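Record format v2
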Amino acid sequence: MTAKQRRRAITRTATLALGLIVWFVPPPDGLTVPAWRLFAIFATAIVSVVVDVFPILTASVFAVAAAVLTGLLTPAKAYAGFANSTILLIVLAFLVARSVVKSGLGTRVGHVIVSLFGRSTLGLSYSIFLVDGIIAPAFPSNTARSGVLYPLAFSLAEAGGARPGEEGRRRLGSFLMFSGIVSLSLSSGLWLTAMAANPIGGEVAKALGVQIGFGSWLLASSLPTLAAMVLMPPFLYWKIAPELKATPEAPTAARRALAALGPLKREEKIVLAAFVGMVALWASAATLGLDSTAVAFLGLGVLLATGVLTLQDIAKEGDVLATFIWFAVLYTLSSQLNELGFMGFLGERLAQSLGGLPALLAGLVLIVAYVLLHYVFVSQTAHMLALFGVFLDVGVKLGVPAAPFAFQLLFATNYFSGITPQGSSANLLFAGSGFLTQGELYRLGALTTALSTVLYLVVGTPWLLLVAR
Amino acid sequence: MRSARRAAGPWWLALVLTLVFLGPLHGQEPADGWRTFEGTWSAVGRRQTVPTETGRPSVVTALSGTVTITSAAGLAAGFRAEVIGFDDGAGGGAGRAVWTDSRGDQVFTALKGEPVETGRRVLGTLTGGTGRYAGITGEYALTWQYVVRGEEEVVQGRAVDLKGRFRRAEAPR
């Protein structure tokens, strides 16, 4: 056994032992044994992924097997995530994105963007933030928006010569993929209507005396979010260090490549029409009462019926199945923790423990704790529903100004989405692109979330004290 | 996702969790047979509705969540709470709740009042229990601070003014 294998075996044993210890420790007063033991399983799965004991798929399947075989969850509850419409939407978006690449439309769009922004790799990242920031207010589902942004980022990576399997040029792809994750986390916080949980948070805030509308949200979010959007690409550029940096000749080369491609081919026209139709329906889904997943099913149906995508193409997308399984499992376990009262207990007890702190310190601790607790959530909406009202109520009782504090928590509900790959369904397409390792996803997620937290606190707090009353 | 390499662990999360589990609970000595308690109630679940002739829907609600006791002697610091409620759409609401503590001991409750909506009031009667709560009786009231709907028809609510009193069968009258 090599030293590396020995180290891995020790880490694996230690993680399992930690899980068993938590399992057998009596639950804290206020939690039932099933809630505590489900937390033991969930925490062991997440820790085993973070310390690289198992890939996320392996950890997830062990976790759900343990939860059902020990009788903590019924099979019906444990497998409920596999029928969740948001998770199905991810699977469909993966397949639709495949058609964008296969038809050549992605390459064409990539060349168009490179011809406009491609003088530097940094410019490509900014182009992702720009497109996302503009389309975001029309997309209440950030998962659906990731289905638009991912083919764009993937095509840009390919246009830059990056390939998932080629280590020499992989970091360009990593840079652009994580740009997509961070961009979604920030654009969702820029507009009230850019993420499904934002208006729901507004309702909770209203019940606690804080009025939030489209305009007041945009005013409040504008300065800290735009600051984060400006600073995040250079930060990622510094941390990931893509091989390709300055590309002054790229716009000219892209224009030449576009000329060589000639007019749109039949497949490209079909994909373009299907995509435009899906985007239009997604954007008007809330107004027309349409289900975003059904729209994606319709789009996929068109692509299959026209032969742009074939059953062989779908059979090749093995990563989709892996993503579907691990995310559905973690989503379910986290939801069940909430239903068993674990999340509510966590919020209420944390809130109680802060009694007596000065208002400023209490507000700071609550915001940081709110962000960190996203490690145990697999849905932004579920996190917001479980903890936002509790934290806002406690903060206000401790003297934290209500409106600025409500905005800080609601912005955090968006920017913490990248803290883990499972932190939002909007991350999954990028996480499954093949360009990012599991370690990179957790490391970059922690770093960018930390930077966002600092930016929103430092830039956002004085701004919110000025504009949010 | 590609194979992994070591990533930074969420050690700060451990600090937060420690804070949570060390949180204080202030007890209150009983003055007579009756003991008072206060707390909060967070709940998540689903609602089903059917229309009625009154224009208000008839609602079945199933919720689970946490009752956190902030002030009491003789009750656990918190319970898992499960509720099933029915509102007939004509002003009559009824339900049952069970609170389960970390030992598995339970408190049973009959509920009446308004539907589970923001600002609505609910009255509960403690009708008995198991283990250390055997023979418990009492009453409580709460108002939903907020109740909102999330994805997949999930509803989530919180009550912060849970207040009531209880006594056990063997307590002096």
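Chain A touches chain B through 75 residues (CB under 8 Å).
Residues 83-195+211-318 of chain A form one domain.
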